Every structure is written in C-alpha cells, then in structure tokens.
Amino acid sequence: MTAFAAMASPTGDGTVTVTATGELDMTSAPTLIEALRDAIHAYAPSRVDLDLSGVPFMDSTGIQVLVAAQADVGGDLRITGTSPAVHRLLQLTGLLETFGLTV
Amino acid sequence: MHERDLDGILDEALLLVTELTTNSVVHARTEVDVEITAADGSLTVTVLDFLPGTVVPNIPVPGATTADLDERGRGLLLVDQLASSWGTLHFSGGKGVWFRLDKAGTASIAAPPSFEIPVAPAPEALSALGWSGTGTSLTEVAEELLHRLVGVIGAAGAALTLDEGDGPHTIAAVGRLTGSVDSGRRVPLRITKPWRGELLIAGGGGNPYARPLTSLAADRLMLLVENHRLRRADSERRTWLTFLADASELLAQSLDVELTLALIPRLVVPRLGTWCAIHAADAGGELRLAAAAHADEAMLTELLDALGQAAPQLKEAMSTDAVVPLGPPLEGYVVALIARGQHLGTLTVGGGRDTWQRSEEVAVVEDVARRAALAIDNANIHAERRSIAHALQRSLLPPQLPKADGVEFGAEYVPTGEGVDVGGDFYDVVPLSGRRWLVVVGDVSGKGVQAATVTGLVRDVTRVLVRDGRPLPETLKRINETLLERGAGRFCTLCLAEVMRRPDGTLDVALHLAGHDQPVLLRADGRTELAGQCGTALGLLDTINTPRTQITLHPGDTLIFYTDGVTERRRGPELFGVDRLREEASLLAGFPADVVVARLRATTLNFSPESPRDDIAIFAVRNDA
C-alpha cells in the first residue's frame, strides 16, 4: 500500500493544481480534504485542478471528498488525470462529466 | 548559496525559513524538517512538520493588513509577498509549506519541489527510573558494621536478628555470642511493622562509649534494614505491576464473554493462589460457577464440591463489596466483581494461609478483580452490540427469498470485521403483480447506525414507490431527492432489476444502475459478460442519469449482482477485481443460484487471510426453466 500525500501549487492563471499520490480511502481522505481546503483558502482560486493519476486505488470515501470539494470551490473542480481504477470508479458512479472527464 | 551565486536572496531566505519554522514549532509542536535545494538562479525550501491538519487557519483576504492576521497568517503573508512562488504539501504524517526564491532577473514558472515522505523522528527512549544501590547485600554490610562496633567497644560478639513476620532469623553475626548475650545488651531497631529487628551485643560493658556507639550502630542498621525492606517491597511491587499489566493486556484482548471468564482463573493460578474460581451473576443476581482452576488438576473435583458449600460467603461478598475470608477446607477469600456500578459476580482465591493473608497480595487480587470485572463488562457490552447489530442487519435484509417456478434467487451477505457495526450493503426482492419481481441491490456509504438508517430509508422508499406502480427511473429520481434532503451527507449506489417471466420460459430483465457495479451475466455455457450501463450514484448530484438496459435470461442463464466488498477484497496490494469474479463465475454455469452465491462468497473470502474491510453482498437470479 502506498502512503498518501497531496501537494498544492498555483499555476499562475488563477488555477491551483493539487497532485495526489497513494491510496485514497477512509484513512487517507482527511489528508486530501486538508490539502484541498488549504489550496482554496491560501489562493482563493477560480479553479482547482486535481491530478489523481498517482492514485492507484480509491473507494467510496474518495467520491464523497471529491463531490464535497467541488461544492467548496463553487463547482469548478476539474480532475486532470486518473489511474485506471479511479477512472473506472468515476465511470461507475456516473461522475466523469461532473469532473470534466470523458469516457 | 555562495557557490550558486545566491547571496542576494540570502536575507529573504533566512527570514522566510525563520517564519515557517516558527509557525511549525508554535502551532504543530513537533519536530521540523527543512529541505533546501539550490539551483542556478533559484532556491527552493520546504518546511515540514509532523502534525496533520491545515496549514492555513485563516484566509489572507485581499486588502488585509498584517494587523488583521495572527502570527501564523503574517508568516504566510510574508511568504506570499517575498517568494517567487509557494505552495502547501500534505502527507499522511503531517504537512508543510514550500517556497521558491529566484535571483533578480531569473524569474521562471515554478514547479513544485519533488519530495520524499519524511518519517517523524522517534522520541528519545526514557531512561528507566529505579533505586540504584551499591549491589552489596544486607548481610555483608551488617557484618562489616558489627565487626567495627565489636572492635571499638571491645565486645565479645554482636548479631543482627530480623523477624519479617515468620519468626526471627540471624542476618549477621560476629565474634562469640553463646552464653554472654544476657550480660550484654539487646537494642530493638525502630523499623516498620510487621518487621521487627534487634541488635544483640555480648560483653563490652566496660567501655564508656559502648552505649552511644551501640545506639549509633543500631540506627545505622535500622537504615540498612529499612533500605533492604523498601528495595524488596519495590521489587515485589514492580513484579506485581508487571503481572497486572500483563493480565490487563490479556484480558483486554478478549471480547468474548466465556473466553474472558475462562481466562481469569488461569491468570491467578499459581501466581496468587493454589486455586481460583469465578462465579458469574445472572440477571436476577443468582451466582453460577463460570470457571475454575487448580494448580493440582486432581484436586479440582474436591474444590468444586467445597465451593458448593461456600454459597453464603459468595453472597456476602456480593452484597458487602468487602473481602470475605473462607475458612477450612477452602482457606481463601472472596472478592466481588464490580464494574461501572454493576455486580457481575465473584472472584474466589485460595491457597496456603501464608500466601493469602499477606495484605499486599490481597490488594493485588482486588486489583485483578477490578480489571477482570471491566473485561467481563466490556465483553458483555460487545456481545450486546453484536447482537443489536445482527438484529438490525437482519431487519434490513429479507427474511427469506421468494420461490417461484422457473426463477431461482440466491443471496449471501458477509458483515465486515467483528460484526459490531451494521454494514451499508443490502439486497431485497419485491414481488410485483403478473409474475414480476424487483431485485434491489445497494450499498450506502459508511457503516454503523447512521448508514443503517439511510439503508432502511432507501429500501422502504423503493418498496413503496414500486408497489405504487412508479416507473424505475422515477423511483430512482425520488430516492436521489430523498437522500439529498435526508441522507445526512451519505450517498448510495443502487441497482434495480425488474424480472419478468415470459410464457416461452425466458426471463426479461429491465436493469437500471445508479452508480453500482455492473452485474455479471453468466450464460448457461459458461460465457460471461458485464451487463448494464453505468448511471449516476444517488445522493450526490441534483440531476441523475440511469439508463435502462434490457437483458434476456435464457434457461440456465444467471445474473450475478455484487457490491464493491467483493471486487475490492484485498490480498496485499492486489484486489480481487471484476476479471477474477468473471473467471470464478464461469466455473459455476449450470449450478443453482444458491450454490453460485455460496461458492462466490467462499472464493472471495478465501482470496485473502485478512477479515473483510468492507461488507460483502452477492445476489443471483437464475432462469431455472
């Protein structure tokens, strides 16, 4: 199991990129929540890009975090990268379009 | 920095590092890691602490002055003002802030620093605290002192005797004592009862300093004996504390009532007595023998007979909360087992009189009784919780599946862990008019009573709406609205399948998936495929899309529904997965529905030695025509 970490950095156009690595489940979800909250508070971005390509596994807790974070950002949370497992879960739950992804 | 020609930004770097490390020390109160990377034209610094949480407690709103912010906010405002770029960093063990300073004229788009997840430094091991003596025995020191005393006062001999409650013993002796003690002196030592000690001097009465020197020697010996007594008491106390700690750990590990009761006598014998018995009180306060142990197994029957005669003393201990002694033939005592104000039973210990009459050992037994009572009470609470969880879980699942000609239903459910929490997985079969049934399989996020409440809500709303004749898309839309209003932030994946038996012997299935895993369609010849189109999970978004898929089950075909507890079952980093599920299902073509689900349950559980992290539900519909 990969230890979870999340890093936030601004990209200069009012967007903040949050890059997550490791397994996103009940135990690691608080770390992502804190990273997203910090990104929103520190930069007041117009959009948050979330890169989950380094997340090999995500469960239903991750879904709740993503939907809640999107509400916090005011609807503009975009997932810019996914692993196959994360992509499959977002597809199963019908949330690909919600986060700007395609089948 | 000098080598990289970064002297020009040294002051800013020092200021920002100071600000950030101060923040970490003041707010996180943990160790701090500072990572510095110097490149040509820029410097990147990452300051990490080991307290998970947010870095920014307040928002530096536009136009805010430093007076509006607390110290931590001011630190980050400085970083924001001075750094070319900066950002935050989170990992499972803590968080941090990174910043980059560019040399004048070399500004570039900053990439965040690469980092390795740090490991919090282990705290220094605490040095053991304890009495540190010279290592010389009481006898050796006493003999040396007596030897000097005899030499100085010209006595024929001297001795130190000590009675620890089991009769006087000579600890040290020098010179000749026989027949001349009476003409000498006996000086009692002022030591803590029940210990008693005496300094015996034979002869030496002619020396004018004999009396004060003997008195001085007696005081020195008294200190030596007290020191010896305290060291022994400390050693015994440490032994008892170790014993109690070990006993507590063993008792805490068991959450099974009968196992806990059986364990207690095994802890007590032979450490605190030759035998031990536990009597448990029932709801009416009546005592029954729950467990007993004897150091000599052959004596156990005799012990049980004798305990049968001790009922009055056991009842007395229960009513008075005091230590009640037991006379012959038992030679022991009874202590009540009390936890959280409830009398749970009695602990009876016995052995030789010399053992059980020592007050410190009685105190240890009382301590064991307190810990044992808590362990029993915890086990009782755990059993009650498990019973409630099972009852609640049963109420959320159908008591039995319908039986009909040509259609077979099979279901398996495995709760997670110890079975003290109600899972979020559920299934149901709702009989409809005209040889139709609605199969419902769902998974509410989370566990426990709150999840169970939402599960019950989803199940009941589904039943009411479909029996009212509402189409499945409308039913799902209503459930989504209900969850958004009353779901307490929980969402649900749901699968609705309307099964209808046709006159030609086929089964028509209208399938709607709302965020749920696609069921496995197992054909009679062993071929498998995933059925249905993915739809939106319920309770997350205002608008949902749950497309309908039409499936025909020919005789011998089976449609297998499951929850993510199956596909996400782990063996190390490996998941059970959908592909493995399909492979295993393909081996079960031709088997009845209840056999299919039972085999898949066994295969899923056997995939890993660990107990399931998530509950598992498997449901099958088979055309049995």
Automatic annotation (TrEMBL), chain A:
Gene3D superfamilies, per the entry: STAS domain
InterPro entries: Anti-sigma_ant (IPR003658), MlaB-like_STAS (IPR058548), STAS_dom (IPR002645), STAS_dom_sf (IPR036513)
Pfam families per record: STAS_2
A GO molecular-function annotation: anti-sigma factor antagonist activity
PROSITE patterns assigned to the protein according to its UniProt record, in alphabetical order: STAS
Domain of life: Bacteria
Domain (STAS) ranges: 5-103
Annotated family: Belongs to the anti-sigma-factor antagonist family.
Entry-linked NCBIfam families: ant_ant_sig (TIGR00377)
Listed name of the protein: Anti-sigma factor antagonist
Source organism: Dactylosporangium siamense
Automatic annotation (TrEMBL), chain B:
GO terms, molecular function: phosphatase activity
CDD domains registered for this protein in UniProt: HATPase_RsbW-like (cd16936)
Pfam family, one: SpoIIE
Cytoplasm in keyword set: no
Ranges for domain PPM-type phosphatase: 404-623
UniProt-listed InterPro entries: Bact_Sigma-Reg (IPR052016), GAF-like_dom_sf (IPR029016), HATPase_C_sf (IPR036890), HATPase_dom (IPR003594), PPM-type-like_dom_sf (IPR036457), PPM-type_phosphatase-like_dom (IPR001932)
Coiled coil regions in record: none
UniProt keyword annotations, A-Z: Hydrolase
Lipid metabolism recorded as keyword: no
PANTHER family xref list: STAGE II SPORULATION PROTEIN E, STAGE II SPORULATION PROTEIN E-RELATED
Protein name: PPM-type phosphatase domain-containing protein
The organism of origin for this protein: Dactylosporangium siamense
Organism classification: Bacteria, Bacillati, Actinomycetota, Actinomycetes, Micromonosporales
